[in-house]
C-alpha cells in the first residue's frame, strides 16, 4: 500500500493500464527493468520501484489482492481519520493546540469524492484503497493534504507547554475572497523561537530549491507556483489581520522528498523561508532559525493574546 494517496500505482510504474493482461504485465516489467537499471541510463530509485511494483502485481493472486485494496506481505494501511485514543496522563505539560488539523482538506476530499462517484450514489467507504487509487489527481491531492497536515499536527504536540499551535487558520485576503477562494495556513506555531507559518505538503515527488523557492523534480499535482513565497504572503495577510509579525514560513515535506533535513531558502519581506523534512520539524521549532528575531517573554504573551482573540478557522 503506498504511503501517499498520490503515489504511483504499480501499473503506472510499469507503464501499463490496470486492464493489462498478465502477459502484458510480464513484458512491461522486463522492459522497465532494462530501462530503469542504472547501467543503462536509469536510476536506482526507479529500478527499486519497478521491482516493488512486480512484487505487488506480478502474480494473479497478488494482483487480485492489490485490486481489492490490499497488498500481500505488507501491514494493512488506511487513509481514514484515526480513531480518538483514550487520553493518557502526560509525563510533562503538553503543547496547547486549537483547531482541527486536516479537517478542511478532508471535507474537501469527501465533497469532491461524492461528486465524482455521483450524487445520490452510495459511498460506503470513501477511503477504500481501490477507490482512492482510481480517483482523479485533484481528489487524491486533497486527501494527501489532509494526511500530511495530520502527520505534522501529531509532531507538534511534542513541543511542550512553551508552544501554542493553531491549525487550519483562515488567511484569505481580499483578492482571494473576491475570487471566491479560501486560503489558509495549515499550522500557526508560536514559541520562544518565533512565530512560524507552517504548511504541510505532499506532492509525491522529490523537491529541489531553485531561484529562491521550491520546484518539483517530477510531475506534481497541486504544486503551487512558488510555494514558499505563497506561504509568506498568506502569513503577511494573517499578520495584518491579527496585528502580529511572522518570523518564519516553513514548508514541511516527507523526508524522502527533500535532500537535506533543513534548507533555509532565503527571505521574503522580512520572513525567513525554510523547507524542512517532516521528522526534523520539532527540532527546527525548538532551535529556531539563525538571524530570525525571537520574542521576549512579554512580547510572547502579547502575541499569543492577539492571536487568541483574532484567529479565525476555515
Automatic annotation (TrEMBL):
Cite the NERD domain residue spans from the record: 144-261
The protein's matches in InterPro entries, at most eight in alphabetical order, are given as: Diphthamide-biosynth_chaperone, DnaJ_domain, J_dom_sf, NERD
Task: Extract the SUPFAM superfamilies matched here.
Answer: Chaperone J-domain
**Region of interest called Disordered, as start-end residue ranges on this chain:** 1-20, 73-104
Domain J, by residue range, is 9-70
- For bias kind Polar residues, which ranges apply? 1-10
- List, alphabetically, the Gene3D superfamilies matched: DnaJ domain
Tell me which PANTHER family the record gives: DNAJ DOMAIN (PROKARYOTIC HEAT SHOCK PROTEIN)-RELATED (PTHR44240), J DOMAIN-CONTAINING PROTEIN (PTHR44240:SF10)
This one is known as Nuclease-like protein
Amino acid at each position: 500500500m503506498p504511503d501517499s494517496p498520490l503515489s504511483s500505482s504499480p501499473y503506472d510504474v510499469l507503464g501499463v493500464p490496470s486492464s493489462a493482461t498478465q502477459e502484458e504485465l510480464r513484458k512491461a516489467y522486463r522492459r522497465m527493468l532494462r530501462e530503469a537499471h542504472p547501467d543503462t541510463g536509469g536510476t536506482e530509485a526507479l529500478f527499486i520501484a519497478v521491482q516493488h511494483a512486480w512484487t505487488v502485481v506480478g502474480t494473479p493472486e497478488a494482483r487480485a489482492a492489490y485490486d481489492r485494496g490490499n497488498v500481500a506481505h505488507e501491514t494493512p494501511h488506511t487513509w481514514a481519520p484515526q480513531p480518538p485514543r483514550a487520553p493518557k496522563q502526560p509525563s510533562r505539560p503538553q503543547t496547547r493546540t486549537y483547531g482541527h488539523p486536516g479537517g478542511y482538506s478532508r471535507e474537501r476530499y469527501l465533497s469532491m469524492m461524492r461528486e465524482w462517484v455521483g450524487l445520490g450514489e452510495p459511498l460506503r467507504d470513501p477511503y477504500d484503497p481501490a477507490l482512492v487509487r482510481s480517483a482523479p489527481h485533484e481528489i487524491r491531492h486533497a486527501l494527501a493534504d489532509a494526511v500530511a497536515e495530520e502527520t505534522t499536527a501529531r509532531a507538534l504536540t511534542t513541543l511542550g507547554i512553551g508552544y501554542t499551535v493553531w491549525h487550519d487558520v483562515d488567511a484569505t485576503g481580499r483578492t482571494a475572497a473576491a475570487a471566491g477562494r479560501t486560503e489558509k495556513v495549515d499550522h500557526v506555531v508560536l514559541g520562544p523561537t518565533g512565530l512560524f507559518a507552517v504548511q504541510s505538503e505532499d506532492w509525491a515527488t522529490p523537491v529541489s530549491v531553485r531561484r529562491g523557492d521550491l520546484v518539483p523534480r517530477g510531475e506534481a499535482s497541486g504544486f503551487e507556483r512558488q510555494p514558499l513565497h505563497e506561504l509568506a504572503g498568506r502569513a503577511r495577510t494573517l499578520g495584518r489581520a491579527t496585528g502580529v509579525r511572522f518570523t518564519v514560513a516553513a514548508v514541511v515535506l516527507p523526508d524522502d522528498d527533500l535532500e537535506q533535513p533543513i534548507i533555509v531558502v532565503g527571505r521574503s519581506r522580512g520572513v525567513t523561508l525554510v523547507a524542512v523534512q517532516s521528522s526534523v520539524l520539532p527540532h527546527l521549532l525548538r532551535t529556531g532559525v539563525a538571524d530570525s528575531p525571537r520574542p521576549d517573554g512579554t512580547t510572547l504573551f502579547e502575541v499569543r493574546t492577539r492571536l487568541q482573540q483574532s484567529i479565525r478557522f476555515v
